[in-house]
Design brief:
There is one protein chain. This protein is mainly α. The protein is about 90% helix and about 0% strand. It is elongated.
């Protein structure tokens, strides 16, 4: 069980690390004189990435909640 929990903790760490890298990249793409079309594209990418990240985090949260429920039953 501990290995499985540790693996899910690592999954969350990896998700957040990837998100950090992706949002840093999006930020770096934008300079003060960048055209609004490029800014719009970056915002669309950010929204898409946030939606995907939210879904993945919710899956991890569900797994942890399932584990807590199983512990209550024992």
């Amino acid at each position: 069980m501990n290995r499985e929990v540790k693996a899910h903790f690592q999954n969350i760490s990896n998700l957040l690390g990837s998100a950090d890298t992706e949002f840093s990249y999006l930020s770096a793409k934008l300079t003060y004189d960048v055209e609004s079309r490029r800014t719009h594209g970056a915002i669309l990418q950010a929204v898409s990435r946030l939606e995907k990240l939210e879904e993945q985090i919710e899956q991890e949260e569900s797994w942890f909640n399932e584990q807590l429920e199983e512990e209550k039953e024992h």
